[in-house]
Design brief:
The complex is a heterodimer of chains A (456) and B (224). Chain A is α+β, with helices and mostly antiparallel strands. Helix content of chain A is 58%, strand content 16%. Chain A has 12 helices and 12 strands. In chain A, strand 9 and strand 10 form a beta hairpin. Chain A is rod-shaped and about 155 Å long. Chain B has 224 residues and is an alpha/beta fold. Chain B has 2 domains: 116 residues, Response regulator (Rossmann fold); 97 residues, Arc Repressor Mutant, subunit A. Chain B is built from 8 helices and 12 strands. A 5-stranded parallel sheet of chain B has the order 2-1-3-4-5, with helices on both faces. A 4-stranded antiparallel sheet of chain B has the order 6-7-8-9, covered by helices on one side. Chain B has a 3-stranded antiparallel sheet with strand order 10-12-11. In chain B, helix 6 crosses helix 7 and helix 6 packs across helix 8. Chain B starts with a strand and ends with a strand. Classes of the chains: A alpha+beta (456), B alpha/beta (224). Chains A and B meet through helix 8, strand 7 and helix 9 of A and helix 5 and strand 9 of B. Chain A: Its EC number is 2.7.13.3. Chain A: InterPro entries: HAMP_dom, HATPase_C_sf, HATPase_dom, His_kinase_dom, HisK_dim/P_dom, HisK_dim/P_sf, HssS/ArlS-like, Sig_transdc_His_kin-like_C. Chain A: It is found in: Cell membrane. Chain A: Keywords: ATP-binding, Cell membrane, Kinase, Membrane, Nucleotide-binding, Phosphoprotein, Transferase, Transmembrane, Transmembrane helix, Two-component regulatory system, Virulence.
Chain lengths: 456, 224
């Protein structure tokens, strides 16, 4: 199982082994470089003392074997015989000439000069070469006495103690690691279970994790992400049901009224009325599909829109000119004041903004009133405002004005071919230009829509 | 009678547009492509061409170029998309106006009327009265840096009054010039239009006022 548990255990073991190895190597290096001469010196002193005692002893061999039993390994080389005292050496080879030199009166510094491999501690090497040697005169004959502390004897218990300690440390660390990784792994498993639920489309679950560390932060972020996803999902469902409703209703009307038109005993008045209804409904469908297409193209492009510098003043003037006939046929007047301005943005999308704002203003204007449009070109931004002298909006209506499919007045909108998408297009287009769309209104007096577009 | 050529490859649109125009008193000719259009232009006295952009064979831009340059006639382009690119290409080809499908027949009529007016009186001078500059070609009233777009009847009324500043124009004269001889509306219609004009001008300028001359008519007075 490649679970986090096994990984934690494995890594702990690897870390422990690695630190042991590194610790060993460092200690060995320290011994080789710093401790060796010191050990050699200490042992040389002891050897010399033992030699001088042995020289003055009545029975040197007895003395040496007693000394050996206090924790030393000794080797005595005489002209005729050589003898070992204490525990045997693992390696007994010692060059003849070295022995001879000691017999001749020199000292032998095997401990100092002993060179061991990287992985062998000189300190523990139980070899005859790794000893100190001193000349000693026994029964008038020159001998050589080699000495090395019996590490095994001296440190055996310490070894066992340290060994047990190491084993306990390893086992406890591994257990603690398991426990600790449990603390980490548990919430992660919870999060993973939650994602599985969300994958099935349930956005009501939240991971039950309350912590103050990074995992707690992750869980909180995760929770708010779920909320956001749930909200998006809800909007999408609403959107789809709204769209199908908004398509179905006019279709139903068109079908119904065209059937009514087939009836021969209709008055001219009724005919005209039914035809008008069919016209209005097709207009609604046409607007709706155009707006949906635009919205989806905005969403597809995300924030990566194609920007080009264009004469925004001219665009607005042309837009107003195009609506002149509608403004005129509604008996409305329009005043406009435009600064000279070029803007780097997506002209096609912005065209949709002006279209929506102006048709909106026309739609909600009172008879014989005026619409006021202005374009102000400032250092950092362009502000376009469209003000009507219409029915206005309440606070609640304003707060929802830019929502998709929201219509200030359901009943009235039915007669003014609103799709409820226009202002949400306005908002999304300004958003992707990094600008803002805002509305302020006094019920009964009129509404101002203000679009602010920052210069790049 | 004014004759209008409709060029579109869709038979329903041709029929729809021509019916709409005929019901408003225009004579219409139909063509389904550029070649047909050119042969109609050669045979009949056409005053204005309505041209669809997307056509098989020679496209609408090319036809527009031919109509404007070789025949010197005004063109209104029909385009399916409101794309800026299309518009610019259209204006480069020499179109006088463009209209985006789907359009309301009323809108097309309004555009045709405006384009024809511009062609009939190509050099109508702008009128100045007080701070007002009245551009009769574009139905535009400029006051300083602001512009005022009026309903057409109100514009005509203002232009008429401004053409003879400080002189009284009689009610009958105004009604005849603005609404035509056949006008059968209420006497009050003129009063209402004058009232609205005053309301609309008041917040914009004090340099002109429309004075009522009792029993006679109205006078546009330039102040100061």
């Amino acid at each position: 199982m490649r679970s986090l548990y096994t990984k934690f255990l494995l890594y702990t073991l690897i870390i422990m082994s690695a630190s042991f190895l590194i610790g060993f190597l460092l200690a060995n290096a320290y011994y080789q470089n710093n401790l060796k001469p010191e050990t050699d010196r200490k042992n040389m002193q002891i050897a010399k003392q033992i030699a001088s005692y042995a020289e003055s002893s009545d029975n040197p061999e007895d003395y040496l074997s007693t000394t050996a039993s206090t924790g030393y390994q000794l080797f005595l080389k005489g002209p005729e015989k050589s003898s070992f005292f204490g525990n045997p050496f693992d390696g007994k080879d010692l060059p003849e000439e070295d022995v001879q030199r000691v017999i001749d009166g020199e000292t032998y510094h095997g401990m100092r000069d002993f060179s061991a491999g990287i992985f062998v501690t000189g300190f523990f090497a139980n070899e005859l070469r790794n000893s100190v040697g001193v000349p000693v005169t026994i029964e008038g004959e020159p001998h050589a006495l080699f000495l090395r502390p019996d590490i095994k004897l001296l440190f055996n218990e310490v070894h066992i103690l340290f060994g047990q300690m190491a084993v306990v440390i390893v086992i406890l660390s591994l257990l603690a690691m398991l426990l600790f990784s449990g603390i980490l792994v548990h919430p992660i498993r919870k999060l993973s279970r939650t994602t599985n639920v969300i994958k099935k489309g349930d956005f009501t679950v939240h991971p039950d994790i309350h912590r103050k560390d990074e995992i707690g932060t992750l869980a909180r972020n995760f929770s708010s992400m779920i909320d956001r996803l749930g909200e998006v999902d809800r909007l999408r469902r609403n959107f789809v049901s709204n769209v199908s409703h908004d398509f179905q209703t006019p279709l139903l009307n068109i079908r119904g009224y065209s059937h009514l038109l087939e009836s021969p005993e209709l008055s001219e008045e009724e005919k005209t009325e039914y035809i008008k209804i069919i016209q209005d409904e097709t207009e609604r469908l046409s607007t709706l599909s155009r707006q949906l297409l635009l919205l989806s193209s905005i969403e597809d492009s995300g924030n990566l829109i194609e920007r080009q510098s264009f004469d925004i003043k001219r665009q607005l003037e042309e837009t107003l000119r195009r609506y002149h006939w509608r403004i005129s046929s509604e008996g409305l007047a329009l005043t406009y004041t435009f600064d000279e301005a070029t803007y780097s943005g997506n002209a096609e999308l912005l065209q949709a903004v002006w279209d929506n704002l102006i048709t909106n203003a026309i739609k909600y204007s009172k008879p014989d009133s005026s619409i006021h449009v202005s374009l102000q070109n400032m250092d950092k931004e362009i502000t376009v405002s469209v003000r009507d002298e219409g029915i206005g909006m309440s606070e609640a209506e304003m707060s929802r004005a830019f929502d998709r499919f929201y219509r200030a007045d359901e009943a009235r909108s039915r007669t003014t071919d609103g799709t409820g998408l226009g202002l949400s297009i306005v908002k999304e287009v300004t958003d992707i230009h990094g600008g803002t769309a805002s509305v302020s209104s006094i019920p009964g007096e009129g509404t101002v829509f203000t679009i602010t577009l920052p210069h790049l | 009678m004014t004759s209008i050529l409709i060029t579109d490859d869709d038979p329903y649109i041709r029929k729809l547009v021509s019916r709409t125009l005929e019901s408003s008193g225009y004579e219409t000719y139909r063509a389904s492509n550029a070649d047909e259009a050119i042969s109609v232009l050669d045979k009949s006295g056409i005053d204005l061409a309505v041209v669809d952009v997307m056509m098989p064979g020679t496209d609408g831009y090319t036809l527009t170029k031919i109509v404007t340059e070789d025949y010197g006639l005004p063109v209104i382009l029909l385009t399916a998309k409101g794309e800026l690119h299309d518009k610019e290409q259209g204006y480069r080809a020499g179109t006088d106006d463009y209209i985006v499908k789907p359009f309301e027949p009323k809108e097309l009529l309004f555009r045709i009327e405006a384009v024809l007016r511009r062609y009939d009186k190509p050099n109508v001078q702008s009128l100045a009265a007080g701070e007002l500059v009245i551009d009769r070609n574009n139905y535009d009233v400029r006051i300083g840096t602001s512009h005022l777009m009026l309903p057409l009847k109100e514009f005509d009324l203002l232009a008429l009054l401004a053409s003879t500043p400080n002189r009284v124009l009689s009610r009958d004269h105004l009604i005849e010039q603005v609404w035509g001889l056949e006008f059968e509306g209420d006497e009050r219609t003129l009063n209402v239009h004058i009232k609205r004009l005053r309301e609309r001008l008041a917040p914009l300028t004090h340099s002109v006022t429309i004075q009522t001359v009792r029993g006679v008519g109205y006078r546009l007075e330039v102040n100061g």
